[in-house]
Amino acid sequence: MHLLALSGSLRAGSFNTSALRALQKLAPKGVVITPDESIGALPHFNPDVEMSELPEIVAALRQQVAAADGLVIACPEYAHGIPGSFKNALDWLVGSTDFPGKPVMLINIAPRASHAQAALHEVLTTMSARIVHEAGVTVDMRDADAMYGLQAGLSAFVKACKGARVSV
Ligand SMILES: Cc1cc2nc3c(=O)[nH]c(=O)nc-3n(C[C@H](O)[C@H](O)[C@H](O)COP(=O)(O)O)c2cc1C
């Protein structure tokens, strides 16, 4: 099984990216979690560009999404919303025919932040992603038991993705 990890932060020392890296190490046998590395380099979304010639980097991101059994998203909150660079990536994925129905696990590493998570739920649901609610985790990465929370979420997510494969 192949999962694609998408971080909503471009910061080198990002806690969200580090949660995704931790998840990679927690992955059970047979599950590979690959980090996306394109989000910071995507051009600004423009429907005219999308309709004329899809930039190679966008086509590659869509291909990665298509090939993944599920998406794991860890995204910070900026000014009570989704960071612009991450929303930009989601906007490029609206036109992906493979996005609808894609299982999504949401990780929130800031228990005090709820606006961005709510916005992500709204946007992803509008894009017809299949948010796996039982896999969603809110963990404080400074807590000793954060890894248990991530592991439990991943385990529920892998189970849901396996179910999705069977029902396709
Ligand atoms: C521009 C900016 C706006 C932020 N706005 C919020 C906010 O509205 N609510 C909140 O809880 N944290 C906010 N934060 C804090 C970030 O969510 C926090 O630093 C988080 O760890 C950033 O994620 P990262 O470590 O993965 O880069 C903001 C940070 C920045 C840089």
TrEMBL record:
Transmembrane segments: none annotated. InterPro entries: Flavoprotein-like_sf, FMN_Rdtase-like_dom, NAD(P)H-dep_reductase. Pfam families: FMN_red (PF03358). Residues 1-134 form the NADPH-dependent FMN reductase-like domain. This is NAD(P)H-dependent oxidoreductase. The lineage of its organism: Bacteria, Pseudomonadati, Pseudomonadota, Alphaproteobacteria, Hyphomicrobiales.
